[in-house]
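Possible regression after last week's pipeline update?

I re-ran a chain I had predicted before the update to compare outputs. Posting the input and the new output here so someone can diff against the archived version. Not blocking, just want to make sure nothing changed silently.
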Amino acid sequence: MGDFSGVNYPENDADCWWTYSKCVNPNLQGLPKDVSDVPEPRTLAYGFDDGPNCSHNAFYDYLMDQGQKATMFYIGSNVMDWPLEAQRAFSDGNP
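New output (post-update):
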C-alpha cells in the first residue's frame, strides 16, 4: 500500500542499487560497471519503464518529431493490454 516506514536497507548496499547509494560497480563478480555518465558531447539518453499504455502514442510522436529514439522497458501484462503501442515503439525503432 506504499507504506515503507518499516523497511530498512542495509548500510553496506550489498546489492549495489544506484537509487540507494549511487553505486555503479556491482558486487557480483563478472558484471560490468553500470553506465552512469555519457562522455560524448550533445548526447542524451532516454529510458522508460512500465509501459506500454495508451498515452505512449503521444510520446512516440514526440520522439519521431524530434528525430530521437528511446529504450523501452515494458511490463508483460501491459504489452498484453496494449500490444499495438508496443508494436509501434518497435516499428519506430525504439527497442
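Follow-up from reviewer: compared with the archived run. The first strand starts at residue 47 and ends at 51. Marking as no regression found.
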